[in-house]
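Reposting from the mailing list since nobody answered there.

I have sequence plus structure tokens for a pair of proteins and want to know whether others read the tokens the same way I do. The first protein:
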Amino acid sequence: MMQIKHLWQQDSNNPDNASNLAAIQQWWASLASQEISWRQRLIPENGEIEQINWEPQRFDEVFLLNQPQLRGITLYWHKPATEGERNITPHKLELDTLAQHLYIYPQNQRGVVIRVGLPEIQYQTLQLKNAEIALSANLMLIRDKGQKIEIKVPLSSEALSRLRKQLSLIKE
């Protein structure tokens, strides 16, 4: 199963630290020549990152990321219309592969977190009022007869396995 979060911390004894950094390096390099969103926020005093409002704010940036590299533990990149290479040395990096966001905790600004990622995708949301769900070996069918909506979700054996695992985590 694919790992959703990769956490790297400076001076960590975690045996996955090096492989997590390698995954982050690969993801960072994959952003080459792509438009990214760059959002910097203060970390709340209680340290609860989940409380941060990541909605767009005035100083957020969207730009084309050029030549992203990770050398040692420092992130490097070039930004259009600015001279030279830019960089940040973090004390912690957290990659959320599901949301496609990298959280950068700079060494020189301990009270700040930067979220880098592809610009947000706006999904269309359907609200089913009276959903019926049918499941077979390779298909999930979700239907709301009242609204006349039917959603067919083809399931590979891997997707079905992930669905079973996620359903088993739900507490009643």
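The second protein, same order (residues first, tokens after):
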Amino acid sequence: MIYSGNLVQHQGRRIAIVVSRFNEIITEQLLKGAQSTLTMHGVQPENISVFWVPGAFEIPMVAKKLAATQAFDGIVTLGAVIKGDTAHYDLVINAAANGVANVSLTTDIPIVFGVVTTDTLEQAQHRAGAKAGNKGMEVTMSLLEVLSLYDEIATIG
């Protein structure tokens, strides 16, 4: 057998979105992309909960707390980290990426990583929908595919 997730309608799904307030000019656009993707695929607006955090570093801890509630079928994480002149950039993106991956692997809740990492504000704007697609939309589609695959896996055996 071959199994593959798809973008079937997802009525009844409960989705949490954890979004960084830092670089809000970018993260607001990522959030809009995620929300529109969810509603386009049948998730009711009342089943989408948005949790604002100060920055990308705080995303994993809030995602972990949300996963522990078991109130959500999946979690989207969104942020924007733009490189500065210090090593702080590397520390923040590594902590955020590793933290989200750890939470996703240690819970039964699929969590997708939508933190845009760029060298410039212009690059971040492109990835938030200006020229290079909307990464919030892209990672949310990945979440919906994984949820569909989880449903298929549950029927095995």
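Reply #1 (J.P.):
I read it the same way you do. The chain is about 45% helix and 20% strand.
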